[in-house]
Amino acid sequence: DVNKNLCFLQWFESFNPFATFAFTLIGLSYESLTHVHQKLEQKSVHMESTTRTVRTVCRTEHVYMDVSLRFEEPGEEVDAAMFKFIIQQALRTSFGEVGASVHVDVLKFRETDLRAYLRVLSSNLVRLWSSLTLTSSYNGRPCSFRVYKVSPSPASLAVSSLHYQHLPAAEETAAE
User: Fold this and answer.
1) Residue 114 and residue 78: Cα distance in Å, rounded?
2) What is the pTM of this model?
3) Is residue 90's pLDDT more than 60?
4) Which keywords, in A-to-Z order, does the entry hold (predicted)?
5) Which of 55, 62, 63, 68 has CB 3.0 to 4.6 Å from 115, enough for a Cys bridge?
């Protein structure tokens, strides 16, 4: 290690024979020069030993949502077109013309419980979700949206873990 430092100083002095003299004038000793050289070596070794990890995130173009609309007082007749209109009104109320320009597709709608599968561009997901969350009334009637699931795949909306029957692993008992 001392030989490396000596070689470094000799190499440095080969470029400038007055380097040692200049360093002594500004108060740097041989020890401080070797210390600086050691620190530089440690940094270069550390930089060589670190590996760079690249994380790639693949975003889908669309995101699918499972949502329902609940009125405080039942009796409101809502079909798929009206459901979409209520969503568009919620977007317009929350985000103005920018929100009104968000395109939302109602893929499947059940009139019995006012539940629907929606499709929206991934870039508009936060806008749609927040406007649904902030909705508190439609035509003066109190209502609220509930978001059940959000997924990049429409197939995963149809699957519910609540319907699985989780069974404990079978235990073998030794007969006595």
Assistant:
1) 7
2) 0.59
3) yes
4) tRNA processing
5) 68
Cβ-proximal residues to 156 (8 Å cutoff; 6+ apart), any chain: 64, 149
Q: Please state, as a whole number, how many other Cβ atoms lie within 10 Å of the Cβ of residue 63.
A: 21
Name the packing angle between helices 80-100 and 125-134 (round to 10°). Answer: 110
Q: What is the C-alpha to C-alpha distance for residues 103 and 118, in angstroms, rounded to an integer?
A: 10
> For residues 58 and 158, which has the higher predicted lDDT (pLDDT)?
158
> Is residue 106 domain-shared with residue 140, that is, in the same domain?
yes
Q: Region 19-45: what's the mean pLDDT?
A: 58
Give the per-residue pLDDT at 50. Answer: 55
- Strand ranges across the sheet with 137-138: 104-110, 115-121, 62-71, 141-151, 137-138
Both 40 and 68 in one domain: the answer is no
- Which runs of consecutive H residues, i.e. helices, occur in the chain? 2-15, 19-25, 30-49, 80-100, 125-134
